[in-house]
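Researcher: Going back to the complex we discussed earlier. I've cleaned up the inputs and rechecked each line, so this should be the final set. Can you rerun the prediction on the complete assembly and write out the structure?
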Amino acid sequence: MNSLGEAFGAAWRLLVGFDAELAQVVGLSLQVSITAVMLATLIGLPLGAVIAVERFCGRQTLIVLLNALMGLPPVVVGLLVYLLLSRAGPLGSLGILFTPQAMIIAQTVLIAPIIAALSRQTIEDAWREYEEQLRSLGAHRLTAGMTLIWDTRFSLLTIILAGFGRAVAEVGAVMIVGGNIDGVTRVMTTAIALETSKGDLPLALGLGIVLITLVVVLNGLVAVIREAALRRYG
Amino acid sequence: MLPLELNGLSFAVGDTRIIRGITARIEAGPRTVILGPNGAGKSVLMRLCHGLLAPTDGRITWHGARNGDVRRHQAMVFQRPVMLRRSALANVMYGLVLAGKSRRESELRAMDVLEVVGLAPHASRPARVLSGGEQQRLALARAWALGPEVLFLDEPTANLDPSATQDIEHIINAIHASGTKIIMTTHNLGQARRLGDEILFLSNGRLMERTPIDRFFREPASPEAAAFIKGELPWQ
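Model: Rerun complete. Updated structure for the full complex:
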């Protein structure tokens, strides 16, 4: 109990003193996860929109698959990306294993299905409501898809932020493809895992506090945006 | 692009036949009211004519169509219009921009139409926060702005109070006066009498009769229509 109190005290001093090592780890975490979320959105959002609006053979299977991929275990994603990027792997010549790029790829693979599956659901629900009206006004499928994305933008933003939450809090994938190299690929979650096993609880706790605060602030932001949008646009 | 000719038009979903072999020729000019009880197939018939549904059997021909794109010359207002999450003005501009007008031209045209339907003061307000009556007026403005030759109206006042209904009926008459052909459904006899020139009476997916408005109420040709009038106006 005493050591817990001490650890909290030390963690607090690290945070308030803006410890350089802590700042570096938090910075890399944000950089990797924000980039991954942007890439996953660029892939997942149009994919979700197309599946929502188009009718094609195998669509139902694809939806089931996509929904299943939402639960993809991060360590398995890490392993697959590791195999792809390792020297003997098909993309080994890129030489990016154990770099932030590899971590970005792994997190993108992890969250693109989440963004695709959830935005497919949101956009398809809107399509049901809008379809006749948009067709009557002369919108073709591509235009209709863009209109639906714009009209559901606040729900989609929530989905994207959920993707970010998943990416930034995930350990398995970045640990395997990043390697947790000090100053190079060490992010919040891998640092927490390492420092805890080393017994350096203040740093682990400090990072934990930052991580939890980040997630809470993000969720607060989502709630505020949704509330404002509902009031403003109905 | 009128006249519109329906030839043996049928529509079924699975084994349920919703429209059963309707043949009719709809000319430019008189306001056509499709009347009938709930479930008669009025809305479906209108969606078939507008091209939102494909008939399972029979043909729809626009005889006066000059080019292939008949969709551009018709518009539809739905019973529950869907408002896009943007301003009232932007909702009217949406269809105009899709029809190939420049943004500037669209905005001028949209403002004109909003003025006519009395929504100019609300042009910049989000469409979804407008009242039910205002949203229905906005839906009419959005359709009218396109300058359609034919305007389909599906129960345009179904959920509105008498005062909002009156506003809508005024606008419908103004659209008619501007030369657009009105084809509308209703199950409200009073509205049919106020707005209709001719009645197409539908029952159970069949066209039972087609009669000028005054004769329809005096001496309906089909027993189904007579029963419907009697049921709706039991004091007569």
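Model: Worth noting: The radius of gyration of chain A is 21 Å.
Researcher: Good, that matches what I expected from the previous run.
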